[in-house]
Amino acid sequence: MTFTFRALDPLKDAELLHGWVTHPKAAFWMMRDAKLEDVERAYMDIAADEHHHALLGLREDGEPAFLMEKYDPAHRELVGLYEPRPGDVGMHFLTPATSAPVHGFTRSVITAVMAHLFEDPAVERVVVEPDVANKAVHALNEAVGFVPEREIQKPEKMALLSFCTRERFFKIQHSVAATGVTA
């Protein structure tokens, strides 16, 4: 699957996002009770933040397929919780719930997200901090090269701090391409 990315428009895309983030399957996104205005406000805040960016991942036909956020962990999300390195970028992604799941879709999404982040030559390492209870995302993270470091207490959750270096991600992608076997 091939995806492209575009900047999220907080007002134009709010209704779409509202449906995604309030769905019960998006519980780890922590916006289940959000009203449309709450979603608009949250993403307007992100749009105005030089250290946090929201993007939509688009299918080949241009239809929105997932949400991706990238942030500077030296300034957002992880300030004071770990020692950031030059070249670190933080990431969140959300695939919407569907009544017709496609096998391998979410794996394709996280692979596309990681490849997109590493297109920036300044990015050396991707940092994530999913909820410790989100076992599905831990498995996906591991499949693309994340290595858990430790649990950290964030204000909103107990999180599993994990890292994926550029080298590790591309080594795994090369291995998958050569063998056709996914982790």
Give your account of this protein's structure.
By secondary structure, this protein is of the alpha+beta class. It contains 5 helices and 7 strands. The protein has helices at 14-21, 36-47, 105-118, 135-144, 166-179, and strands spanning 4-7, 52-58, 64-71, 88-94, 125-128, 147-153, 158-165. Strand 4 (88-94), helix 3 and strand 5 (125-128) form a beta-alpha-beta unit. Helix 1 (14-21) packs across helix 2 (36-47) and helix 3 (105-118) crosses helix 4 (135-144). The mean pLDDT is 93.
Helix-strand layout with pairing:
Layout: E1 4-7, H1 14-21, H2 36-47, E2 52-58, E3 64-71, E4 88-94, H3 105-118, E5 125-128, H4 135-144, E6 147-153, E7 158-165, H5 166-179
Parallel strand pairs: 4-5
Antiparallel strand pairs: 1-2, 2-3, 3-4, 5-7, 6-7
